[in-house]
Amino acid sequence: MGSGVSLPLDRSSTFRVDEQAYRLREAGRGYEAMVYARETNPTVEAVERRLAALEGAEQALLFASGMAALHAALMALLDGGGQVALSDRIYGGTTGLIDALLPRIGSGVSTFDPGRPASLEAAMRAETRLVICESLSNPTLRVADIPRLAELTRAGGALILVDATFVTPALQRPLELGADLVWHSASKYLGGHSDLIGGVLAGPRKLISACRAWRTRAGGCADPDMAWLLERGLKTLALRMRAHDHNARGLATWLAAHPKVSVVHHPSRADHEQRALASELMRGSGGMLSFELAGGDPAAARVLANLELFTEAPSLGGVESLVSPPARMSHVGQSDAALRAADIGPGCLRLSVGIEDLDDLLQDLEIALEHA
Ligand SMILES: *Cc1c(COP(=O)(O)O)cnc(C)c1O
Q1: Where on the chain is N6-(pyridoxal phosphate)lysine found, per UniProt (predicted)?
Q2: Which residue among the candidates 88, 91, 148, 245 is catalytic per the annotation?
């Protein structure tokens, strides 16, 4: 019988046990025996092998969500009061989990600017065990100087975990730049079709084993159906990322020349402060961009009301173009001072640029901007 060319989907939650499985469990290697799907499942494991290959990692783990993956990493890597040094431009959910969890486990946080490694040097404490940053931050696309941050982390005897959700291994492989662990929300570009929630950790065997133990304990395991959908998405990752990048560059160039647009944040722009660093660390700039309208928030509201191809929705990384106002979505409730510190000015809109025809996207923006 020939075997299928697509990944078999095995929904089993439990598996037939043989003598070898009992022996593995008795030897404390129950995970390898594959007896229960909270520990592992063949479909999930096959996708994990592909994710590890994409990241150039020894091993990868798939989780129920990006946040479940971060939870496992924090529990595995912070012991005995170890502290976190956290980038000051970071996903709200990351800050939310860290702020809620760390005080309960006797841990604390310091912050640094991911684009200025010297600021990490100042943020490192004797107790710092874990440094966390994003390859590209939301929504202004600040580039983390991973090689320099990794050096300082190592010198301080800590580990560095990089959230590579915005770049994917198609644009950057953080482990090759010195990161100890890579973290993804697979719900974004890796899945790529806005139809799944999942998370990934990838890195060396020893760290991944510690994170896996927490996945099993806390139950943030991946569903095989989600794993299967994710694997289908991964088949087109390289193609999709090329199309996202092409379209975002085109829109960034067009927006920068538009009289009603005052600022464009995209690493492909000549006026992006970190353009050289971006081209050193990434193969392309990706599909996210943000811009500010000279007319401020009222102009942004009129543009939102007149866009048709861009759906007004949070999240990102799918094949379809999305738009959202960071001040009312990802950064909702933050003070004007906090927004200014994050470089989010009045009239800011964030685009997750999809893979539609670039001319269609340009035309949609052109019409909407007539109302700005
Ligand atoms: C969405 C997101 C997360 C959280 O992932 P979930 O899959 O939603 O749990 C973490 N980091 C970044 C940068 C994200 O965009």
Answers
A1: 188
A2: 91
